[in-house]
UniProtKB/TrEMBL annotation:
GO terms for biological process: regulation of DNA-templated transcription. SUPFAM superfamilies: Homeodomain-like (SSF46689), P-loop containing nucleoside triphosphate hydrolases (SSF52540), PYP-like sensor domain (PAS domain) (SSF55785). Residues 179-408 form the Sigma-54 factor interaction domain. GO terms for molecular function: ATP binding; sequence-specific DNA binding. It comes from Desulfobulbus oligotrophicus. Residues 142-169 form a coiled coil. Keywords: ATP-binding, Coiled coil, Nucleotide-binding, Transcription, Transcription regulation. Pfam families: AAA_lid_14, HTH_8, PAS_8, Sigma54_activat. This is Sigma 54-interacting transcriptional regulator. Transmembrane segments: none annotated. PROSITE patterns: SIGMA54_INTERACT_1, SIGMA54_INTERACT_3, SIGMA54_INTERACT_4.
Amino acid sequence: MSDQPAPIVNATAEIQRLSTNWQTLLDVMPEMVFLLQEDYRIEYMNRSAKACFGAPCSRPVAESLRIIGASCHERLLRSPDFFVDDKVIEAMVDNTPVEYSSMSFIGYTGEKLLMLIMRNITQRKNFEQELLQFNTSIETILEQKIGELQASEEMRHRLSRQVNSLKNQLGHYHKADKMVGRSRKMRELREMIHQVSESDATILITGESGTGKELVANLVKATSSRDDKPFLKINCNAINDSLLEADLFGYEKGAFTGAVQRKIGKFEVVNGGTIFLDEIGDISPRMQVALLRVLQNGEIIRVGGTEPVKVDVRVIAATNVDLAQAVKEKKFRLDLYYRLNIINIAIPSLRERKEDIVELVSHFVNHYREAFKKEIDFVPKSAINRLLTHSWPGNVRELENLIQRAVLVAKDKVITEADLIFDDDPTAEQAEGAVLNIDQKLGAQPLKDILAEFEALIIEQALSKYTGNVATVADQLQIGKTSLYDKMKQYGLSAKSIKKSRKAR
Ligand SMILES: Nc1ncnc2c1ncn2[C@@H]1O[C@H](COP(=O)(O)OP(=O)(O)OP(=O)(O)O)[C@@H](O)[C@H]1O
């Protein structure tokens, strides 16, 4: 055995073998490989490079590679040793986007070459471009959608402003709102009602007689959280004092003659709901004390009893009396006045809101032409002007009565000035008599309508004669109370209104 290394039998064959292996290796690589000479001319391209750029390369490709080579050379010069640039750089070779890295390479003859390992990134670039376009179009779509949303938001704001301004113009309307009138004062009144109705606070409604205090009380209750709870209306003026006390607070057995058993009063009946005390200015000092107890402590004592009973009742009171003045005159307790007057809704008189007259007239004409089956369809300007100049001391009630009479006495489809008989007019009493003029009615109206007019007149006069006492009127006319109420409803007659308008004359 020899210690000598094995002689290289065939050096040329070995170089050939290595070279072939090396070239094969380069040719199977998916990357493009270029060897550039010192003047950047292409010395070698592997199979991938040829497939991409062709061999020999076109002039523009060769030029691009020369530029790339020159830029790598800069870095090669800076590093005299073997140089591998692991940076991946993007460039364009002719029109093909590529990325490449570079390294120095020693050729067969010891010359310094530059190797470029390059990848065609056309597909990636296209994909990036598509992605960019997609993003841009998504952005455009989003911007468009955001624009549309902003526009619809602005539109919503504009509409809501319009709705608010219309609401302000019309006032707050509620289905339970039976008040006619859209004057500024009525709009403010409605706004006030809506503001205060939600709370449980006691409310004092003030206003001249006939201004619609009961309608306001109804609306307060309808717009409150107690709308679905019991609601009772008591006219404090209509019942005598001891009856009122027993009616409101109930009584114990033996409290007075006839009190054979305990009876609970309206405050207990209505527990959880609302009570409307109309004409509160007229209650006696004794009732004032009892009422103060309810408002202060939320409790009542039954007549003849000693035990207080808790009640949860919202009180709405109304008066056309100047309570502050009544307090000064010592007719009304100051402490009760304060308790009642926590929230005051003051209804303006009709002469303060004459803008409402036309609408009220049309409302009442419609109502009474239905009730009296008359075909009134016109109120001339002269008649309206006459109504506008009146001072309406009896407010809407007076206007309603006047229109009721006018509809009743009108001979034609038109209400003339002659048909307008004011309460303070001495002919008012005779006005109804005009309806009896049968000659004018013959041929103009069917019998049943003439009879209805007479019937309405008779009932109205009877109610007036017996100051609105329905039981007495029913008795006198020898009809049942229910039937009388039905007819009063049919003809739009209210015992309260008649009583008041008679008082006012
Ligand atoms: N704004 C209105 N719209 C329609 N009708 C009204 C209006 N105001 C009042 N009325 C009518 O006028 C009449 C009197 O109304 P109401 O009884 O509510 O007045 P009031 O202020 O309570 O009077 P009083 O103080 O004399 O009791 C009723 O028939 C009522 O329907």
